[in-house]
Amino acid sequence: MIAAIILAAGQSTRMGCPKMILPWGQTSVIGQVVNTLATAGVGHIVAVVGGVHDKVETALQGLPVKLVYNPRYVEGDMLLSFQIGLSALEEQFEAALLALGDQPQVESQVVQDILTTYQMTHAPLVVPSYRMRRGHPWLLARSLWQAIFDMQPPSTLRDFLNTHASQIHYLPVDTGTVLQDLDTPEAYNRSRPE
């Protein structure tokens, strides 16, 4: 079984307001991420939340997601949130998909392709690539979870991917959505659906 972990504990400092709960179509930014993962067939979804966890919880009401709190969210560390998310998964999960809570543009077909690629190759890392650039979400097999747990700041998830580059199975995709996130009001206004 494969679970998804959505990193949603950031403080949205460049956005100036909690970006996870901004409107996105009929839902919120993070609600769209959950819907995309669920539509792609991910049966267990965990969102790691931080400072505005109560508002995120409200935004996610009725959606198939479990919330896990990162008490050290002010450190703004994605590695720590991923460690907390992995710790929340039971033993039956053989891999985890790392998704970003501010990436509502990601398409369910890309997620399905990542899952299918893992099931066919059993590669320890499956990373989407657009024009030779790594994107999100990416998948991590359980065999490498301990390597994540062993890391300490200032090491980052990018450092992890660089260290394990030889184990990455790249999945070329034809959409730049795997690279896009929402960091500023301009990016949000440019990307949000009408």
- CATH level-1 class: Alpha Beta
Looking at this structure, what is the CATH superfamily? Spore Coat Polysaccharide Biosynthesis Protein SpsA, Chain A
Give, in order, the helices and strands.
Answer: EEEHEHEHEHEEEHHEH
What is the second-level CATH architecture? Alpha-Beta Complex
Question: What overall form do the CA principal axes indicate?
Answer: globular
Biggest pleated sheet: 8 strands, mixed
Written description of the protein model:
This protein has 194 residues and is α/β, with parallel strands linked by helices. The protein has a single domain (2-191), classed as Spore Coat Polysaccharide Biosynthesis Protein SpsA, Chain A. The chain has helices at 29-39, 53-59, 78-87, 108-121, 145-149, 157-163, 185-191, and strands at residues 2-8, 23-24, 27-28, 44-49, 66-69, 95-100, 125-130, 133-134, 138-141, 168-172. Strand 7 (125-130) and strand 8 form a beta hairpin. The model has no long low-confidence stretch (mean pLDDT 95).
Outline the secondary-structure elements.
Elements: E1 2-8, E2 23-24, E3 27-28, H1 29-39, E4 44-49, H2 53-59, E5 66-69, H3 78-87, E6 95-100, H4 108-121, E7 125-130, E8 133-134, E9 138-141, H5 145-149, H6 157-163, E10 168-172, H7 185-191
Characteristics:
alpha/beta, 194 residues, 7 helices, single chain, globular, two-stranded antiparallel sheet, Spore Coat Polysaccharide Biosynthesis Protein SpsA, Chain A, 23% strand
